[in-house]
């Protein structure tokens, strides 16, 4: 089978699984719901306290929750076959495991990109509706970079989940590692003195300056040792390293 044939097969599997479609639908819904709540809260109270609050914060904070279905989507697209045992049939049809891994990564990217764009748009538009006159405009200098960075981040985090699904050959283990990390781990550990110097480099933290979720960089408690786009580059480096490890693991794994 050619890479094109494999990509078509992986895409067909991705869009016909009920579990992946449920994750795909949940991401923009969560982003919109949290965007509405934060928009009204910040529009009604927080932003009135002073101009120092970044209005992009409530517009994109919903992504911290909406990223969870995208991570789960990546894990399910790769780890589900290992759990069910159907990965054996895929390898029988495609002895070149590297080619199969490439097709899976491309299929995940193809599905994650429009979904990430829809999720970011849902979060931004829902929060703007609540912020009212204090809402950032599409033409504000910081908005295009933040929205583009948010889309790229969500695609990368979905690919990170896909890499974990292949690397750990299942769904329970990678979800058990990634979900606590994204929901509690590095953010909670970052509040412990002495650990912030390390946790600022974890994959869910590095993109936060670009997404305006890290707080004012002039404040010592929020300062990062890298710039916004460098931070996104660090997220990409985490994802690339995970994909490489997953590729090597798939090539060496003995699947009966």
UniProtKB/TrEMBL annotation:
Spell out the protein name for this chain. Answer: ABC transporter permease
Q: From what superkingdom does this record's organism come?
A: Bacteria
What residues form the membrane-spanning segments? 21-40, 60-78, 105-127, 142-160, 167-185, 229-250
**Source species, please?**
Mangrovactinospora gilvigrisea
Q: Which UniProt keywords apply?
A: Membrane, Transmembrane, Transmembrane helix
The answer, when asked if Transmembrane is one of the entry's keywords, is yes
